Amino acid sequence: SLQYKLSKIRLYKSGFISLISGTGIIISHRDSSLIDKNFYNLLSKDERDKYSDLETDRELTLETVSEFSQEQVFRFFYPISVGDGAKPWHIMVEIPIKQATVRSQQLLLTGYVTLVLGLLLLTYMIVNIFDRRRYERHILLSMRAVEESKNIIAESEIRFRTIFENANDAIFIVREGKIEFPNPKAREMGRKMGFDLDRGSFYDYIHPEERAM
Fold this sequence. Notes:
This protein is α+β, with helices and mostly antiparallel strands and 213 residues long. The chain contains 6 helices and 7 strands, in the order H-E-E-H-E-E-E-H-H-E-E-H-H. The protein has helices at residues 2-7, 45-48, 97-100, 102-166, 184-193, 208-211; strands spanning 16-20, 26-28, 60-65, 72-80, 89-96, 173-175, 178-180. It is rod-shaped and about 150 Å long.
């Protein structure tokens, strides 16, 4: 009855529970062909030293290659008292490492994916920040260039007005036959000649013989 009940227990997909007597005899196992065989005889010489604690009533935890499935497994031994035997019996629990750690591997993979996505997002943000700063720098340089151009134009306009207003020659601008912006010297000469430069046409102040030119 004990063999039947223990053989029905499944841990993860292929993990199992086995009962081993104090002398190492396999009392129950999912593989019925192993019942009544000595567990220690299935171990290699190098592996037997790892199980020396089974002679005491201490629990034992191992990470090893299973003699039954040839897979990496976690193996736990829990001592139990049966009768008046000098050596304790043990319940052996064997769980494949791949199956036991599949959830942690999934979480680890999720963590890696999250980390990669986070790094990509961080890289995009850093590149975006540097591009934004570069554009801002270009805009500032362009604004400075515009301000400098305005200053140059303003200075040029001041120089032109200074020259225009203080020139010893009469200077004025003619647009569509009308005199515009006469400088002080031109107004002075016009007053001396009896001309009002703000009225009439430019051609009114030219000798008739010169107008054809």
